[in-house]
Design brief:
- A hairpin with a 3-residue loop joins strand 4 and strand 5.
- The chain has a 6-stranded mixed beta sheet with strand order 5-4-3-6-7-10, with helices on both faces. A two-stranded antiparallel sheet has the order 1-2.
- It is elongated and about 90 Å long.
- It is an alpha/beta fold.
- The chain starts with a helix and ends with a helix.
- It has 2 domains: 237 residues, von Willebrand factor, type A domain (Rossmann fold), CATH 3.40.50; 50 residues, no CATH class.
- 35% of the residues are buried.
- The protein has 10 helices and 10 strands.
Length: 300
């Protein structure tokens, strides 16, 4: 079965086709696209006049201004350019969680489908998109491309990915930062589990390099609501053999307090570092999540 239908439902496809992502700042690129570029070129948006010098193209002369001033000026334009988007998708063991009965959508499947929606969005508006899949290290890396074939490559990489092992999120993101170009947008799709400070430091480094960093933090509803009511055996999805049997009724209050502390530290840390933090649940519709996010983003 082709990778695109597996990851992008028909309703998601139609919803994403109606959306656009506009860069907030200037972006670097060589192709005509939707975004403001720092390079001077031929486009539809006028920038400024400058005095004509020998060698300038005659067609660039503003003859109307010449008629008013009796001096030759040429018109300069600011051409629009392609955005470079990089998707960093977590495939560590904790992302495999899919619910108490093991029948729901895992966080990893949610993450890959969210990445598929974003990939389709950027490719459809002729922007370059790249992908990195990681756990303890980067396992798959596709450099940003804006070719039509790039979407197929992205979908196959996402569809073939699988979870396993621990992750040292801060170290992996620091490594990824060395491969991210300037003036692009970086998306981290992960549950963010681990030490908060290394995570925030690495996100801060990414923010110094990229024009924008967006952290989609993926939660399974069980992790937020802790719906367990009888003695339960919790097994680590990242460290084989590590497990613990607990009484949820006595443990729930402590768990929720620690959860709130973790969520607050991540949210406040992202705000301080100008990282866009988007908490999301694995039972949310992917395209609608992106649509709501874009609506809020454009309103800021």
């Amino acid at each position: 079965m082709p990778a695109l239908p597996r990851l992008l439902a028909a309703e998601d496809h139609d919803r994403m086709a109606a959306l656009n992502w506009y860069a907030r700042g200037v972006v670097e690129g060589l192709h005509v696209g939707m975004h403001r570029s720092p390079y001077i070129g031929v486009s539809v948006e006028f920038k400024e006049h400058r005095a004509y010098v020998r060698g300038d193209e005659v067609r660039s002369i503003d003859w109307k201004l010449y008629g008013k001033t009796d001096r030759l000026f040429v018109r300069q334009y600011e051409h629009e350019s392609n955005l470079k988007a990089t998707l960093l998708v977590d495939q560590s063991g904790s992302m495999a969680y899919r619910g108490t009965q093991g029948t729901g959508i895992s966080k990893h499947l949610f993450a890959t489908r969210l990445a598929a929606c974003l990939s389709y969005l950027f490719v459809s508006q002729h922007d370059a998109v790249g992908l990195s899949l990681f756990d303890t290290q980067v396992r798959t890396m596709l450099p940003p491309r804006n070719r039509v074939s790039q979407l197929e490559h992205l979908m196959h990489a996402l569809a073939d990915s699988s979870c396993g092992g621990e992750t040292r999120l801060g170290e992996v993101l620091t490594d990824a930062a060395s491969r991210v170009g300037r003036r692009g947008v970086v998306f981290l799709i992960s549950d963010g589990f681990g030490d908060v400070e290394p995570l925030l430091r690495s996100l801060s480094l990414l923010r110094q390099l990229a024009s924008e960093v967006v952290f989609f933090q993926v939660w399974h509803p069980d992790e937020l609501d802790f719906p367990f009511s009888t003695r339960t055996r919790f097994q680590s999805l990242e460290t084989p053999g590590q497990e613990r049997v607990v009484d949820p009724l006595s443990f729930r209050k402590t768990y929720l307090r620690n959860l709130e502390r973790f969520q607050t530290a991540v949210a406040e840390g992202c705000t301080q570092r100008r990282i866009t933090h988007v908490p999301c649940r694995s039972d949310e519709p992917h395209a609608e999540l992106i649509a709501r996010f874009l609506s809020r983003r454009e309103a800021v």
